[in-house]
Amino acid sequence: MKEISILLIEDDELDVISFERALKKINLPILLHTAFNGIEALDLLKGKNRIPIPDIIVLDLNMPKMNGGEFLTELRKDNTFNNVKIFIMTTSNEDRDRSRGEEFGVTGYIIKPLNFNENTKRNVSMDNFMHFQIMKMVGDQLN
């Protein structure tokens, strides 16, 4: 089975931890790279700390230094990344954010749960959410 490479661009450490935890539960050959903003991500993709081109990029929109929209603007200037599947994973349910994602040709738009009724269930709920979404993302990469 081919190893799937994912670049997660997310500034919320709890979401990164939940994503990592969900990947472990899937038990598939997945290599995860993380960046906490668009600048770090571009460095991983094009800079001196370059990683191989990922199969999938999972991108938050609201981040410091360089947000998701600014990152997509820069990334789309380089045809090298045209075949990378990009999933926006954000708390924003705004039509303008969805439309902008479509303009950039993203593969999917995932709305993260904003909060949970009981704080004690946050980890389990977020893990289940991440597990479901990751399986949707990597599903066709496995074939």
Describe the 3D structure.
It is a single chain. The chain has 143 residues and is an alpha/beta fold. The protein has a single domain (4-141), classed as Rossmann fold. 40% of the residues lie in helices and 18% in strands. It is built from five helices and five strands; from the N terminus they run βαβαβαβαβα. It has helices spanning 13-26, 38-46, 68-75, 95-103, 122-138; strands at residues 4-9, 30-35, 56-59, 85-90, 108-111. It has a five-stranded parallel β-sheet. Strand 3, helix 3 and strand 4 (85-90) form a beta-alpha-beta unit. The longest helix has 17 residues, at 122-138. The protein is globular. It starts with a strand and ends in a 5-residue tail after the last helix. The model is unreliable at 116-121 (pLDDT under 50). It comes from Sporocytophaga myxococcoides. Keywords: Phosphoprotein. InterPro entries: CheY-like_superfamily (IPR011006), Sig_transdc_resp-reg_receiver (IPR001789), TCS_response_regulator (IPR052893). This is Response regulatory domain-containing protein. The modification 4-aspartylphosphate is found at residue 60.
List the defining traits of the structure above:
143 residues, alpha/beta, Sig_transdc_resp-reg_receiver, phosphoprotein, CheY-like_superfamily
Helix content: 25-40%
Quickly count the domains: 1
Q: Say how many strands there are.
A: 5
- Could you give the distance between the termini? 9 Å
Structural shape: globular
Q: From N to C, what is the helix and strand string?
A: EHEHEHEHEH
Chain-averaged pLDDT: 79
Radius of gyration: 15 Å
Beta percentage is: 15-25%
- What is CATH's topology name? Rossmann fold
Would you identify the CATH architecture? 3-Layer(aba) Sandwich
Structural class: alpha/beta
Q: Please work out how many helical segments DSSP would assign.
A: 5
Q: Name the CATH class.
A: Alpha Beta
| CATH homologous superfamily classification | Response regulator
Strand order of the largest sheet: 2-1-3-4-5
